[in-house]
Amino acid sequence: MAIQSSYGHFIHGEYAAPASGRYLDSINPSDQSIVTKIAEGNAEDVEAAVASAKGAQQAWAAMRPLERGGLLITLGRLLKENIDEFARAESAEMGMPLDFAHMAMTGAANYYEYYGGLAPSLHGDNIQVGPGQHSYTVYEPYGVVGLITPWNGPLNQSARGAAPALAVGNAVLHKPSEFTSITALMLAELAIEAGIPPGILNVVTGTGAGVGNHLVEHPDIHKVSFTGSLRTGQMIGHAAADKVMAVTLELGGKSPDIVFEDADLEAALPGVMFGFIGNTGQICLAGSRILVQRSIYDKFSNMLADAVNNFPVGLDKSAPSLGPIANEAQFDKVLGYFDVAQEDGAKLLAGGERATGGELDKGFYVRPTVYGDVNNAMRIAREEIFGPVGVLIPFDTEEEAIAIANDSEYGLAAGIWTRDLSRAHRVAGQIESGQIYVNYYLESSVEHPLGGYKKSGIGREKGIVALKQYCELKNISIKL
């Protein structure tokens, strides 16, 4: 599945030219070359895709769950068989190093296999209300689900929404980011090969204004799942309220990663570092607020600064490395936060500048960065930077660490590093976040539920719980 020179939308099992006749350039962030051209969608394209999905969905929902799930398992296995092509496409379009791209593609395939296996297990309850009445519940698909995904983990993010939605009998209309659309289109094409009927997984590409708004507002879209920025999520939430439509929103984060004085620092070091530089820091779950107990603060900050300074930048194919920022707008935003940090009075320990030299000059590269002596009132400690930037915040007591961790409008994830199991449980129980990692960070599996407290989102993805997020619950009561 080589990258094509241009892509139309994928509607009802085949590529379709955009109604506008216009295409957008997809740019490789490592050297700013054009990877391909993608269709620039509009309301007419959305209408065609929804009509296709609506026409196909009932037969899909009527299929035995075991059979429907088997097709999703086949899709996951086909993706693994084509993993090199998918990884190269995602690396070219988003800037992921190939080792990280392979990991992300494997994760995407796992979602289809996992939810394919779970498809036959969804069942309602028999409600015991006494003699003379039989009452029970059933789960039914919404119908057509809209899926809007970001540029930072294109295929993996889409799989964690599409796989459970498809497993329970919905059809999916996917709008990927205009910056990273190729793997979504390749996957839709692969779904046909797996035996999934035309119309069940449609992809319309383009901008939020051109496609996303029409998708959210369409009367035949009965649920929207969105991953992305707080601002866009708020806009979708307002539109959904007007329609009285269900949403799943996975939004921003400014997650605390807490290192206690009894932690194994040698083990914590790579975990903490990957927590904020993994995928070049472009992860909603990034542990970018690093809270370190004062008794070990100097030692650990020096260890982290040395590790970050020595981490390679560039698309090194032989070893882990830091790829480019995924697009120019985000690149400029990250560079702007280096100025903000200086204004805040933070102490620069590593990085804090554009990465230059040789091939790096062509792309959107920045040095992995650490700031020390940060307090939680600084902008760099409160705002989501979405780049490889970590801020070190000292604390004295367990109670202070919890207070700092919770002093945020976000609550997506948190990390705890300690040898004290009682402390781990105690602190985890008091942190206002949807996912807590203890003595590791970000190595989660498809089985773990994910979602945010506060402004980090609504609803849950991943795990068994996600199946019910894509269903209506119906109660049936019969008088005997």
Secondary structure tally: strands: 23
Number of domains: 2
Helical segment tally?
A: 15
Task: Output the radius of gyration.
Answer: 23 Å
- Please state the overall shape, judged from the principal axes of the Cα atoms: globular
Strand content: 15-25%
CATH superfamily of the largest domain: Aldehyde Dehydrogenase, Chain A, domain 1
Helical coverage, percent range? 40-55%
CATH class of the largest domain: Alpha Beta
- Write the CATH architecture name of the largest domain: 3-Layer(aba) Sandwich
The description of the largest β-sheet is: 7 strands, mixed
As for the CATH topology of the largest domain, it is Aldehyde Dehydrogenase, Chain A, domain 1
Distance between the termini: 58 Å
Mean pLDDT across the residues is 96
What order do the strands of the largest sheet run in, or round the barrel if closed? 15-16-17-14-13-19-20
Q: Characteristics of this structure?
A:
single chain; 480 residues; alpha/beta; Aldehyde Dehydrogenase, Chain A, domain 1; Aldehyde Dehydrogenase, Chain A, domain 2; 2 domains; 7-stranded mixed sheet
